[in-house]
Amino acid sequence: MAKKNANSNLPVEEKLQNLYDLQLVNTQLNNIKKLQGELPLEVSALETEIVTLDKKIAKLEDEHKDLQLSIVQHENKIKEAEALIERYNSQQNNVKNNREFEALTREVELQKLDIQLANKRIRETQQKLGNKDTTLDASKGRQEEKRADMTLKQEELEKITAKTEKDEQKFLRKEKRARKKIDDALLAVYDRLATTYKNGLAVVVVERDACGGCFSQVPPQTQLELGQRKRIINCEHCARVLVAPNIQTSLEELELQKEEAEAAAALEQ
C-alpha cells in the first residue's frame, strides 16, 4: 500500500513520463509479436484440427472393423446354411413318407433364402466398406497435410522466437520495472485503454495538432495544457492519454543522463 501511495504522490509530469515510458516498452513488445504474426494462432488451430482428425480417423477405423466383422458373420451364416442344405439333401434319401420329404424341402428352401439374404447383406456392407475406405483415406491424407503444415509453421515460429527471445525478455524486464513506477489506479486505466485498442496504444503523442491514436483534432487550449503538464488529459474522442510532443525529447535527455551516469560510475571503478 505504501508503494501505491508513493507513486500516487508523484508530480503529474513524472506520472506522464512513466506512462509514456511504459507505452514505449509495450510498443516494442507488440512489434515483436507482429514479427510472429498469426503463426501462434495458426499453429494452435492446426493442433486442434489434427486432434479432431485423430478422433475422426479412430472412429472410422472402428467402424471399418465392425463392417469387416459383419461380412465375416454373414459368410459364416452362408457356410452354416450350405452345411444344413447338404445335410437336409442327404436326409431326403432316407425319408419314409412324402410329408418328411416336403418338410426337408422347405428347410432347404429356407436355407437358400438365408444364403440369398446373407449375400445381399454382404454386398451392402462391402459398399459401405468401400465408402468408409474412401472417407478414411481422405481423412488420413488431410491429417498428413495438416501435420506437415503444422511442422513447417512450428519451425518458422521457432526461428522467429529464437531471434526475438532475447529482446522480448529484455523488454519484459523493462515493462516490469516501468509498471512499478505507476500507481495502481492509473495503471488500471492504462491497461483498460491498451486492451481496448488493437494497436495497444493507451498513451499517444499529439502530432500535427491531432491525437496520435484516433487522429482527431486537439484544441489549441488543450495542447497548451499538455505542454504545462499540470494534469493528465485524455482525448475527447478515444479517451487515450495525451502527451505533448516534447516528451520524446525529455526521454532522450533522460536516457543521455543515464548513459552519462553509467559511464561516470564505470570510470570511478
**Poorly predicted sequence stretches spanning 5 or more consecutive residues:** none
Structure classification: mainly alpha
What's the mean pLDDT score? 87
Q: What count of domains describes the coordinates?
A: 2
Strand content: under 5%
Helix content: over 70%
- Assign the CATH architecture of the largest domain: Orthogonal Bundle
Question: Could you tell me the number of beta strands?
Answer: 3
Could you describe the largest sheet, including whether it forms a barrel? 3 strands, mixed
Question: Which descriptor suits the 3D outline?
Answer: rod-shaped
Description:
79% of the residues lie in helices and 3% in strands. By secondary structure, it is mainly alpha-helical. The chain has 2 domains: 2-36 and 177-263, no CATH class; 39-163, Helix Hairpins (Orthogonal Bundle). Strands 1-3-2 form a 3-stranded mixed beta sheet.
Notable traits:
79% helix, 269 residues, Helix Hairpins, 2 domains, mainly alpha
